[in-house]
Structure prediction request, 194 residues.
Amino acid sequence: MKIIILNRRLISYVSIILGVILIILSAQLTFNSKLKSTAFMQNGISQLTEYYTVGKKYQYKLPNNWNTNEESFDSSEIVYHNNFVSDDLKLHGFAEVWKLKTPLKKFLENSKSSSYKPGSVLNYKIKKTKIKNFETYLVTYNMKNQSGEIYKAWEYYIEENNEFFRICFFVPQEEYKANLPVVFESITNTFNKV
Prediction:
């Protein structure tokens, strides 16, 4: 028969440490929620409107004060495209659904060289991340347009079976605010498979 001797002091230390960890985790969740709310308010965003892709396969939300324009393409690759622009016209972008013909990672690596003029894209970075439970690639870069203006870009790619959902945000460098990446990630986090 074994006798287990419990050290009361050790048990109290472990209990205190676990309690502190729980407090820190709950504070972090509260802080993240307030940070997103603050970032939305600082950028004039009060409510979000739901949008559905073709066939109501995917759902996402955009600020209700942004203007949108859904377009159709004669393409077997792009099956959904919705342009958006902020009410102050400083930020624009689009949401798309593409049919995949190559692996997404390869598509992303090839898109830099095929989509832009040499030298027009700076600081091109691909980062694997998660949006909810979806494997996601975040592509960030700076892009110089024909008139020499520099835009900061955030593109999220969420792969799902043989297609991907893409949402892109572009803002002129002089209009960039440090809290915009939080806004972009929060908007992208509204993505759902219906």
